[in-house]
Amino acid sequence: MLNPFTKKYTPKERSLFKFLRQADIFFELDDDELYEMLPYLHLRKYVQNEVIFFRNDPSQAMYLIRNGTVSLSLDIQDKFISLFSLHTGGYFGDDALLEGSVRKYTAIATSAECEVYVIPQVSLLDIFHDDLPIKAKVYEAFSRRQNLILSAIFKHYRDAFGFFDLGQAYSNARKDILET
């Protein structure tokens, strides 16, 4: 039986919930918990080759790609080495969940047009302060993802027998994670 006091969500809100759940970090959140995020989603548009952030910048926001492509790269000796690209539904900048962190890579929009939802770190931390179950679910998903990435990098390093291409290892590690 339906509860007549259950909050009703608009089609636009339901669409945003579906979009947010594409990111494994928000997958376990229910509609009411995702609703807490909606006021803090800011849609930004980037053009091709526009830098979203540089390596070593303060981690002040998390990003979810609404449409387009973003390349995550390392800058080594004045060259950008692409680690991998993310597409619609992908997310990056989750190091913003950690206060005082800095970016480990540079993010660059690579499609002609790129729309990205930005969630400021201060907003995430406010939500976590006010709602500990949301914080627990998000940090558990974040920890699980970081563990998978680290495990995959170590596996590819061992398989390379010391011949190690970081870009290739990171790309292979991402593929392994996305296929699980």
Descriptive report:
This protein has 180 residues and is of the alpha+beta class. The chain has one domain: Jelly Rolls. Helices cover 38% and strands 25% of the residues. The chain has a four-stranded antiparallel beta sheet with strand order 1-8-3-6. Helix 3 crosses helix 4 and helix 4 crosses helix 5.
Report the portion of residues in β strands.
Answer: 25-35%
Per the principal axes of the C-alpha atoms, what is the gross shape?
globular
- Rg over C-alpha atoms, rounded to the nearest angstrom: 18 Å
Q: How does the helix and strand content classify structurally?
A: alpha+beta
Main sheet: strands, sense, barrel: 4 strands, antiparallel
Note the gap between the termini.
Answer: 36 Å
The H/E string reads: HHEEEEEEEEHHH
Estimated helix fraction: 25-40%
CATH superfamily: Jelly Rolls
Could you say what the CATH topology is called?
A: Jelly Rolls
Q: Report the count of strand segments.
A: 8
Q: Quickly give the CATH architecture.
A: Sandwich
What strand order characterises the main sheet? Answer: 1-8-3-6
Q: Which CATH class applies here?
A: Mainly Beta
Low-confidence blocks of residues = none
Mean pLDDT figure: 89
Whole-number count of domains = 1
Number of helices: 5
Topology:
Blueprint: H1 11-21, H2 31-35, E1 42-47, E2 51-53, E3 61-67, E4 70-76, E5 79-86, E6 91-92, E7 106-109, E8 113-120, H3 121-130, H4 132-159, H5 166-179
Antiparallel strand pairs: 1-8, 2-7, 3-6, 3-8, 4-5, 4-7
Helix pairs in contact: 3-4, 4-5
